[in-house]
């Protein structure tokens, strides 16, 4: 049971990282998002991501599907919030 929970958490973490990178790469307001990241302005980044989540959806064959705050992979669904995505974006930038 614990191993499955660990695997689910790892899969969810990887899914959030993928979706975050995809949004930062393809979102029309990506320059504004990157500016918020560089300024470490989490609240503004959350606002931008909330707006983005309202109308952004994408999917890739044999990969992730993202629709209205839900990431699906291998039949498992993970609900994510703009806060989850913002925290991941700030973490990714910090590691650069």
- Give unreliable regions as ranges: none
Characterize the biggest β-sheet: 4 strands, antiparallel
What is the count of structural domains? 1
Please state roughly what percent of the residues sit in beta strands, choosing from under 5%, 5-15%, 15-25%, 25-35%, 35-45% or over 45%: 5-15%
Assembly state = single chain
Structural class: alpha+beta
User: Mean pLDDT across all residues, rounded?
Assistant: 87
- Estimate the helix proportion, in percent: 55-70%
Q: For the largest sheet, list the strands in their spatial order.
A: 1-2-3-4
| SSE pattern, N- to C-terminal | HHHEEEEH
Q: What's the number of extended β-strand segments?
A: 4
Envelope shape: globular
Radius of gyration: 13 Å
Total helices: the number is 4
Account of the 3D structure:
With 96 residues, this protein is α+β, with helices and mostly antiparallel strands. The chain has one domain. The chain contains 4 helices and 4 strands. The protein has helices at 2-26, 30-38, 42-55, 82-95, and strands at 57-59, 65-67, 70-73, 76-79. Helix 1 (2-26) packs across helix 4 and helix 3 (42-55) packs across helix 4.
